[in-house]
Structure formats: structure tokens, C-alpha cells
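Hey, can you fold this one?
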Amino acid sequence: MKYLLLGLLAGLLMLAWRSWRRAGRARFIESFPLQARLDQRLAARRPSLSESQRGEVLEGLRDYFLICNRAGRRMVAMPSQAVDDAWHEFILFTRQYDTFCHKAFGRFLHHTPVEAMASPTQAGDGIRLAWRLACAHEGIDPKTPARLPRLFALDAALGIAGGFVFRLDCLAAGQTGNSDGYCASHIGCSSGCAGDSGGDSGGDGGGCGGD
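Sure. Predicted structure:
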């Protein structure tokens, strides 16, 4: 009985320590000066975006890093091309990015393109996890959302060429086909279904789950 209690206590202490560590990493991500580091690079890559629009994209990148912190080593797909562009620019600062990753995640956060994922279902699983965590981050019910989380709304709102367009409930609105984007309402449905565009769930590969 004594050893059982000690084991339970050790388990509780471990959980508390992990929660404390994750909260500390989240605070680091929240305070990191993404705008100062990446605004000029993003302006060169996306010259059509205004300063305030670039600010929204960089806050979207912060959202993504926060949900990756929450996801641990699970794969989280990237649902925004604009945010993915900002992430690419950050990765080019190799030493700074490496330092950021170890402080934010305790490891290097790799970028994994969809075509390089381990299985055909990994991208779909990653976008569903991104949806659940992005909704939780903004206090949105993932199964009956009243609005899209920022990461899923940005590309359409900014008119990003080649971006990922998500509709809140495209089937209910009678919208089907690739040109109409992806049904966000189906990403969060109880059956675990993804987008309606030919079985593709949308989004790029985020390397939150890999080494």
C-alpha cells in the first residue's frame, strides 16, 4: 500500500511538473517578438499584405506555435499558407530558430511537407488535431463552431493566392467542389470526417510530431 501511494504521488508530481513546464513554454511563445524578427521578411515574400495584415499572419504563427506546444509530439498540420510562409522565413534564421524551438518546445520543431508524411492518413489526422486545438485556444466549440479560428480563417480573409480556404459550413450552404474550399464543420464532426474536397483535408504538414 505504501509503495502504491508513493507511486501515485510520483505520478501526480510528474504531471504537475509537465504542466508547469508547458505553461512556461507557452509564456515564452506569447512574449516572443515575432513581429520584430519577421515582418520585413514576410513583407518581401508577400508584398500585397499591409503591415496590419502581416501582423495578423504573425499572430497566426504564434497561435500555431502555441497549439504545437499543447500538442506535444503529435503531428499538427498547418491550415494557412500565409502562416506557413512566415514559418518558412523564421526557419531560415537557423540558429535563432533552433534556440527558439528548444525554449518553446524542448526540441527542434521540424517542418514536414504533406508528401513526406509517414502515411496517407497522417495529414488528415494532423488537420483534425489542428482544428481541435485551434478551437480550444480561442474558446470555440469544435463540433458546432460559431466562427473559424484565426488559423483557419486567415487565407480567405486576406485573399492569399494558393491559400487554404475553409468554410464554416459549406455543405449546408450548398457549396461543393474544390473551388469552394474545405468544410470546417466536417473537420470537427463526431465521426472524425475531414474536408469535402476530394477527400483531401487541406493544410500543409506541420512537423510537431517528428524529430
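The radius of gyration is 18 Å. Let me know if you want another pass with a different chain boundary.
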